[in-house]
Amino acid sequence: MKTLAVRLQWARTKKNLSQEALAKKAGVSQSTIGNLESGLRQTARRITAIADILEVNPMWLSDGKGSPEPAHGSSRAESVDAERHLSEEAMIVAEAFDLLQNAAQKEAVLTQLRAFGVLK
């Protein structure tokens, strides 16, 4: 499983949870889960909580490293590493993007990012 999107969808399906149910348990919006599963987002501030709910290794979920099985004894260190992929500001921006109300607003932000040369 090469991407976070594929790993997340696989783990969520295995636990028989809807996107909405997982989001509620993890304390994120359903759109956060949807954006992760669609590949629009590459990480989430609550990736450790999501991994814990899905009972998978947070480093596997985040990066595809190791096995999906949670590591006993080292999961907290792995959890901290998984959450350090983005700066605090980047995570805030990603979460704010998820709060936008419609596709036109999201597309306007993406258009600006393309204009800055940070998205293709």
UniProtKB/TrEMBL annotation:
The keyword Nucleotide-binding belongs to this UniProt entry's keyword annotation: no
Region (Disordered): 60-83
Alphabetical list of SMART domains matching this protein: HTH_XRE
Signal peptide location: none
Pfam annotation, one family: HTH_3
Residue intervals of the HTH cro/C1-type domain: 11-61
InterPro entries, per database record: Cro/C1-type_HTH (IPR001387), Lambda_DNA-bd_dom_sf (IPR010982)
Keywords, comma-separated and alphabetical: DNA-binding, Transcription, Transcription regulation
CDD domains: HTH_XRE
Matching PANTHER family: FELS-1 PROPHAGE TRANSCRIPTIONAL REGULATOR, PTHR40661
Protein name: Transcriptional regulator with XRE-family HTH domain
Species: Herbaspirillum frisingense
